[in-house]
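We store amino acids, tokens; thus:
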Amino acid sequence: MFQCPICEQKTSIPVGGASVLPQNLHLGFEVEVAGYMSKMTSNSDVACDQCAEGSSDPAVVFCCACHHFLCAFCLEHHKRNRIWSKHKIVGLDQEGARQLHTTMKPRDHYCSQPNHEDNKLNFYCETCSLLVCPHCTTVTHKSHSGKEISTVAKTHQMEMTGALEDAKEVVTKLTGAIDENKRMIEQVEISSRNAFLAINQAFEILQQTLEERKKTLLSELEAISLSKTTALTLQKEQFEKMVGDIGHYTDMASQILQTHTDHEIVALGGLIPTELQATLKRVQTISLTPNQHSNITVSVETDDLVRQLSKLGEIVAFIPSPSSSTWTSTSAAKVGTRYHVKVQSKTSKGEEYPHGGVEVKGEMRSKTHNGAVVYGEVEDHRDGTYTITLTPQTAGLHQLFITMDGQHVQNSPNDLDVRPKRDYHTLCNAQQVIQCKAPRCVAIHDNGDIYVGSGYHCIYVFDQTGQLKNTIGSMGSGDGQFSHPNCISIKGDVLYVADGGNYRVQKLTSSGKFLHKFGQQGSGQGQFNCPVAVIIDTNNKLIVSDYSNHRIQIFNENGGWLLTIDGNGSGNHSFESPSCLALDPQGNIHVAAQGSNTIKVFSKEGVYVRMYGDPNVPIGIAIDDEGYSLVSESWGNCLSIYDPEGNKIHTVGNLKNPHGTALDPRDGSVFIANYGAKTVLKYCVNI
């Protein structure tokens, strides 16, 4: 076995020896050139290839065409020949050797078969994979498939060119992969260092906390021990003094009894017993039990802590799987509007990956505007989720690309239709007119059904063509009955109805089945005095306009009171008779107040933000996902449209006492409850 110097593959020498192996003609030529160069630059004489044997004239030049060394005599002969005189001649020195390497061309190859020595190898036998001469094609290789060598060479050139292009592409990818590996190695080192620092920092904090707690406990122990010891010492000293006093008087009494006369005993006898009895009585008034117990215990529950510490921390070495990770978006893509995409990273098993730090990218490429690209801003929430924000600049079909560590996540790329900006200036004539009795409010279901709250104390349901398909409720105070259904809010297949005359909010299915209610007449928390509007935010909080109490109340989805925005009083927070509500894209609450003819904006926490507009008795308001406000003015008999900054940009007139207004969630069409004309009008927005 030996290794080929060209392809580096190992092969065995075939029968017949190495001479039968395919020859590398180019390598043979390079070897031949190297041999000539070696002779040209040596200090020894080189024999002339044209002179007969035994000639003593050394060669002085080399013919690059004939591949012959020539002496001075043969050189003259060479120059005289009409064909040979055009050959390139170089000297036998370093410069000649340099020129030789750049000007010498491979000599023609001739057939090695007997009697064919003068025939060039101009054909290729495909059957035998051999170069052959014209005579061989008519004799030995007569029945074989063959082609001219130039044709075969062109085929091989094309194949090699293709292979080179493929190799270039693969090398580019491999180079990119190598660079990515290098980057990943650097990231691993950085991550490792950061993790090392984080571990040390965490345990330093733990050690510091434990040490501080230890010092606190020892300090408390020292204080308690000192307090007990001091109290017991004082008590002991008190007892010792009493023992000393008693001993003093008993010693005096014993001495008097032993040594004093009767007269002396009588003279002193009254004093000693009195003092002694007084001391004995003091002893009886105090406790002889130690005033402190000796027990000092410490309660340090270490078992749970040790168990927790033994599992404290986690080294996460695995990464999320891009092909398992998902993305969602809850809004439509529009020109000039921020489009948000939420990415959830997941493991290869489909489990949510709970850590951040992965490189997530998002971009939007137009299919209709020369491939214009919008790159997204990525926010890493550090919990395995990411938010990509893109603002498309052109309308039409786009492709959305979302990658994680350079690989596509599920459903990426994905086609995305970007809508143009709405042009409310085109609102002039209604494209649809639906006849309806006393329409007070209107709401549009995701399926296109039109829900109209009527002054006839019911809710009419029309299909997209304007045909009546259902009537929900009737006049009354029972479940599912109404007294002035002033506002309808729809989320999914659930209706929320502001049932003004019954001082409550009702929750029903889209088909009218009663589900829940809350509220009663009054001015306390959770009570109403004519609720006229109800909307629901993205967190399922219900926001209710309490008309005659001049306030807004916010509830959880079950009707539990959460917050009140009080309009009574003066200043920015004041408003009178709030008649309708809407939420802007930021979640702010827009309050249109009929009594004060104002539109005021409050945060979801109830903080005043701003005021805009000059409506003439506003009764309906709707806000699109770009922040444009559409306000129906009952006494103005019009619909006023404001841009997101609060500037009035257009007015739709010729209405009759318009009440509620709503937007179709599918295409943004505008619906108006045209109360005075007993119609519901639909305007299609030019987008």
